[in-house]
TrEMBL record:
Protein name as catalogued: Fibronectin type-III domain-containing protein
Domain of life: Eukaryota
Top-level taxonomy: Eukaryota, Metazoa, Echinodermata, Eleutherozoa, Echinozoa
Keyword Repeat recorded: yes
Organism of this sequence: Strongylocentrotus purpuratus
Name of a matching Pfam family: fn3
Record keyword Lipid metabolism present: no
Keywords: Repeat, Signal
InterPro entries the UniProt entry points to: ECM_Regulatory_Proteins, FN3_dom, FN3_sf, Ig-like_fold
Length: 595
């Protein structure tokens, strides 16, 4: 702390230099302090030298024990300050110091003694939910006192009191009650006042769940009166603190979600009770030492899941910047869902095609051109199937797999389809799952699960089978940068075609081209943007467009026909696929002839 009197300047040379420099540059400092006091507070104001300019002030209130009231000085930009919670007839030293960004100016001290309690007044201090301390001005000729409360069960009986002060044990938290001091002979009322006890603390605080930037707390409220709750959040790494207040009626089921947190950070969470300011009573809080606290860590990855998908979002460290992310979803078998990680520039990702009640580990890795950052991992179990639902998976043009929640008292099930020829009959089913053989590709049909005695409908859903693949794909011709394909379309319903092109030398997959069925004449398409003199694999698949609740569906990749071919060189010497391979055979035939 900087020195504030000339007698101490030699003991604090650095402070002396800073104060003198500030005084020369910005004015000498504090010129005067004015005080208005009472038994419990001191209201101070101060004046600075004419022409001086200061950014802020520190106000320290030091008890006779040389300890600061409140533990440390208070910062303010005003030139007035109210100091509360003091005791009557006690001496305090007030120190006001002006500051700029360059340092402190000349401080000024003032010693003040709080006023005595007026006759007939009761001074109340240290009020909690279970105790308070009261003092009063001694009454001449009265040697002992008695305390009466209204209601009478608000405090414990104090018995005879031989000093002009006493500690009260409060029995009614969060309650307004009257206290009357009586004494003398004959006994008479000496003084009277109202007291409002502080609220009790909540209990049983728990951390229900955390996200990347939020946490949900629950607690058991006190049974005694209270108006609101305060939520204390402390970052255990930086000691940064924040307080949020919610009125009791605004908190449903004694649960609150606190936002604005940092991801992957350990926090302390506390819950306290509050009585709002009312009449002559200021805001009162439950005891900080009694408020329950719980510790928790925010997530790196937030998950929203269902029986068939997991929707994830993630957060990275503040100030970090990444070019893209890889998302890998690993089954309990340690194999990646989809075979390999997915690249994305977003911080959200939807993972579909999962099975209910299965465990998956999600691994998110951030990347820049210089390499990978620290990965984020989270293990998630997909939800169970809800009663009355049918979970459909692995839908192709010829098969699907369905699951459902077992029904109590039903020991075997039957499946009906509409139209009835959409699937093969399944016969009796003794487990809550079955594979379906689909007979109508590219078709919407209804599946109904039946069972019980008497037999009744248990669940129903609509399905759309995937389209069949085209057949007989051929490479009609190639140029230096293009190739023309033709194929025989499937006879079952389909809306469009997708064309897959793979560079066989680099294994580079060109962007998939999609053509609506009506935009393709004579089942023929010319693909452009190829490289000269390069071997390619060309594939054709069928597509059903997204419709109503059905997403886009593709024919099976393994069933789609593929053809191989080579583009012409950059001199324009393009060859047809047949001629190209015929020319390749000539040297081999000559070799056989010569042998």
């Amino acid at each position: 702390m900087f020195c504030s009197t000339i007698s101490r300047l030699f003991l604090c040379p650095l402070a002396t230099v800073l104060i003198l420099y500030a005084a020369i540059s910005h004015g000498s400092g504090i010129e005067s302090i004015t005080v208005q006091n009472s038994p419990s507070y001191i209201n101070i104001s101060w004046a600075t030298a004419a022409g001086s300019s200061w950014d802020y002030y520190t106000v320290d209130v030091i008890k006779s024990s040389q300890r600061s009231v409140g533990g440390y000085p208070t910062n303010t930009i005003d030139t007035t300050h109210l100091i509360t919670g003091l005791r009557p007839e006690e001496q305090y030293t007030i120190v006001v110091t002006p500051w700029t960004t360059e340092g402190a100016g000349r401080s000024l001290n003032k010693t003040v003694t709080t006023e005595a309690i007026a006759e007939g007044d009761i001074f109340v201090s240290d009020v909690t939910s279970s105790s308070a301390f009261i003092r009063w001005k001694p009454v001449a000729g009265v040697f002992f006192y008695d305390i009466e409360a209204e209601p009478s069960d608000a405090i414990e009986d104090t018995g005879g009191i031989f000093k002009a002060e006493v500690g009260l044990t409060i029995l009614l938290p969060g309650t307004v009650f009257n206290v009357t001091i009586r004494g003398g002979s004959p006994v008479m009322d000496v003084a009277s006042t109202q007291i409002r006890s502080a609220p009790e603390s909540p209990v049983n605080v728990s951390l229900k769940q955390t996200g990347t930037t939020e946490a949900t707390l629950s607690w058991t409220p006190p049974t005694s009166p209270h108006d609101a709750y305060e939520f204390y959040v402390i970052n255990n790494s930086t000691d940064e603190r924040s307080i949020t207040t919610e009125q009791r009626d605004d908190v449903s089921d004694n649960e609150v979600t606190l936002t604005g947190l940092s991801p992957a950070t350990i926090y302390s969470f506390g819950v306290g009770s509050v009585l709002n300011a009312m009449d002559s009573f200021g805001l009162q809080r439950s005891g900080q030492d009694d408020n329950p606290t719980v510790y928790g860590r925010t997530e790196s990855i937030t998950v929203q899941n269902s029986p068939s998908y997991i929707n994830i979002s993630w957060a990275t460290a503040a100030g970090s910047s990444w070019d893209y992310y890889t998302v890998d979803v690993i089954k309990s078998s340690q194999r990646s869902v989809g075979g390999y990680p997915t690249n994305t520039i977003d911080t959200t990702h939807l993972i579909t095609g999962l099975r209910p009640e299965e465990q998956y580990t999600i691994v998110v890795i951030p990347w820049t051109t210089e390499g990978a950052g620290r990965s984020l991992n989270k293990t998630v179990t997909t939800e169970a199937i809800a009663e009355g639902d049918i979970f459909v998976s692995d839908v192709t043009s010829s098969s699907a797999f369905i699951q459902w929640k077992p029904v109590a008292g039903v020991f075997f099930y039957d499946i009906e389809a509409e139209p009835s020829d959409a699937i093969e009959g399944t016969g009796g089913i003794f487990e809550a799952e079955v594979g379906l053989t689909i007979l109508l590709p590219g078709t919407v049909f209804t599946v109904t699960l039946r069972g019980g005695s008497p037999v009744m409908d248990l669940a129903s859903t609509q399905m759309r089978s995937a389209p069949e693949s085209p057949v007989n794909v051929s490479l009609k011709q190639t140029g230096t940068t293009e190739a023309t394909l033709s194929w025989t379309p499937p006879t079952s319903p389909h809306d469009a075609y997708e064309f897959y092109v793979i560079n066989n030398s680099t294994n580079e997959r060109l962007p998939t081209t999609t053509k609506q069925r009506g935009d393709v004449s004579d089942n023929e398409v010319t693909l452009t943007g190829l490289s000269p003199a390069t071997n390619y694999s060309f594939g054709v698949g069928s597509v059903m467009n997204a419709m109503d609740s059905f997403g886009l569906q593709r024919s099976g990749q393994d069933d789609n026909p593929t053809v191989y071919g080579r583009t012409g060189d950059d001199t324009g010497n393009a060859v047809s696929s047949t001629l190209h391979y015929t020319l390749l055979l000539i040297p081999a035939l000559l070799a056989v002839f010569l042998v």
